[in-house]
């Protein structure tokens, strides 16, 4: 199938216009593969999404000659991450030793990143991005997925494709529709997201705050912080019952520099709950269908690696599938090869995240009680700090299986 854009048959249809879906769509169209990307919203303006673009992804942007266009979009760059433990600051993961062009994390609103990729991808004749269009189910014929059912407004229609890629996130509609088996890992936390004004003169380099047995993460933007208050899973009702003023005062106690700004929290509508998950599919594929990114392996916020892993999935998918898609010779063994390539990195990352959760939030306290930093972790931090900074920096900045662009460009963006 080769028609598109704006027809209802295509070579590849991607459900989900997040980082994995847009990046994969860009790569496929750049190599001459017709692709339709479906995004259920009318724009990319979603707050409290992952905004950290790590050195592994910056390398890919450089390989695609997009880095110079991307870097001005960044609100902030961090070559190292500081953490404040009960009033004492120490240097966390460092990136300056990495063998990459960019030895920093770029904090960039996700919508700016996605807008850049999608606008550049529109230079390729085979790229078709359909906003306000949601994939709701797959279309099957003779035991194979041959397309997707979509909703655009109140109109339902089908798009036929040689390959459907489900990149529709941790709450994947296509994963539910196809009943793929999910392995869940019990996670003891959830996250409350909110915005606070950034104090004048603040350098933004301290990202983690653990004080009074409670934890905050502060992600810098140009004029405000995107703040994550870590809570125990199941504690949200108890926290809300104490009122927004009590919650705001607790924020100020955990992070004293934000004490004044916390007064701006006026209503629970300002606070969004993220239910943290770590899970994975046992099988990422079936004939005509492939899952990537959070749809295949949902990550916790630890390390901010979710976007970057999803993009690595997209690159590995393009590297393996461009040739068979262009030849009309795609087989399920090609899809299995993507899982074989990417699953080990996803599982190792999830295992590491689970260890961090266990160290920071393990134990037998009831939901809502303070967290604590285990003594074993304290000893490791202080005894092996220089080594841990470098190792943690590499794990966060590069990951376990960095990918590189292997596909050739049939078209160039302007």
In short:
The chain is of the alpha+beta class. The chain contains 11 helices and 21 strands. The chain has helices spanning 19-30, 55-63, 67-70, 110-121, 173-178, 236-241, 244-254, 306-327, 332-361, 375-383, 385-397; strands at 9-15, 35-38, 52-53, 76-78, 80-85, 88-94, 105-107, 127-130, 133-141, 144-152, 155-166, 182-185, 189-197, 206-211, 214-220, 224-232, 272-274, 278-281, 285-286, 289-291, 297-298.
Description:
The protein has helices at residues 19-30, 55-63, 67-70, 110-121, 173-178, 236-241, 244-254, 306-327, 332-361, 375-383, 385-397; strands at residues 9-15, 35-38, 52-53, 76-78, 80-85, 88-94, 105-107, 127-130, 133-141, 144-152, 155-166, 182-185, 189-197, 206-211, 214-220, 224-232, 272-274, 278-281, 285-286, 289-291, 297-298. It has 414 residues and is α+β, with helices and mostly antiparallel strands. The chain has 2 domains: 9-74 and 108-185 and 277-397, FAD/NAD(P)-binding domain, CATH 3.50.50; 189-274, 2-Layer Sandwich (D-Amino Acid Oxidase, Chain A, domain 2). The strands form 4 sheets. Strands 1, 2, 8, 9, 10, 11, 19 and 20 form an 8-stranded mixed beta sheet that branches. Helix 1 packs parallel to helix 8. The chain starts with 8 loop residues before the first strand and ends in a 17-residue tail after the last helix. Keywords: Oxidoreductase. This is FAD-binding domain-containing protein.
């Amino acid at each position: 199938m080769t028609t598109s854009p704006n027809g209802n048959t295509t070579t590849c249809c991607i459900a989900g216009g997040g980082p994995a879906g847009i990046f994969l769509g860009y790569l496929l169209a750049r190599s001459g593969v017709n692709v339709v990307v479906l995004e259920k919203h009318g724009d990319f303006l979603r707050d409290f999404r992952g905004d950290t673009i790590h050195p592994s992804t910056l390398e890919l942007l450089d390989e695609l000659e997009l880095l110079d266009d991307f870097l001005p979009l960044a609100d902030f760059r961090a070559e190292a991450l500081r953490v404040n433990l009960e009033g004492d600051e120490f240097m966390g993961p460092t990136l300056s030793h990495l063998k990459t062009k960019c030895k920093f994390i770029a904090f960039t609103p996700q919508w700016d990143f996605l807008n850049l990729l999608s606008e550049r991808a529109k230079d390729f004749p085979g790229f078709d991005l359909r906003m306000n269009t949601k994939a709701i189910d797959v279309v099957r014929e003779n035991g194979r997925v041959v397309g997707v059912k979509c909703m655009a407004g109140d109109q339902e229609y089908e798009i036929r494709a040689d390959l459907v890629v489900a990149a529709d996130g941790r709450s994947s509609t296509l994963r539910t529709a196809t009943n793929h088996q999910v392995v869940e890992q019990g996670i003891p936390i959830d996250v409350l997201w909110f915005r606070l004004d950034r104090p004048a003169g603040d350098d933004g380099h301290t990202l983690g705050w653990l004080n009074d047995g409670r934890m905050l993460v502060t992600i810098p933007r140009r004029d405000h912080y995107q703040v994550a208050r870590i809570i125990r899973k199941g504690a949200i009702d108890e926290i809300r019952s104490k009122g927004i003023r009590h919650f705001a005062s607790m924020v100020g106690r955990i992070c004293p520099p934000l004490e004044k700004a916390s007064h701006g929290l006026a209503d629970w509508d300002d606070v969004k709950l993220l239910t943290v998950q770590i899970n994975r599919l046992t099988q990422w594929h079936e004939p005509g269908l492939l899952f990537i990114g959070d749809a295949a392996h949902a990550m916790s916020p630890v390390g901010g690696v979710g976007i970057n892993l999803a993009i690595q999935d997209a690159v590995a998918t393009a590297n393996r599938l461009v040739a068979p898609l262009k030849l009309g010779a795609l087989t399920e063994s090609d899809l299995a090869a993507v899982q074989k390539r990417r699953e080990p990195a996803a599982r190792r990352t999830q295992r590491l995240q689970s260890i961090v959760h266990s160290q920071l939030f393990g134990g037998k306290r009831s939901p809502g009680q303070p967290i604590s930093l285990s003594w074993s972790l304290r000893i490791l931090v202080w005894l092996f700090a220089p080594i841990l900074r470098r190792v943690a920096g590499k794990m966060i900045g590069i990951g376990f299986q960095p990918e590189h662009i292997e596909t050739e460009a049939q078209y160039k963006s302007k």
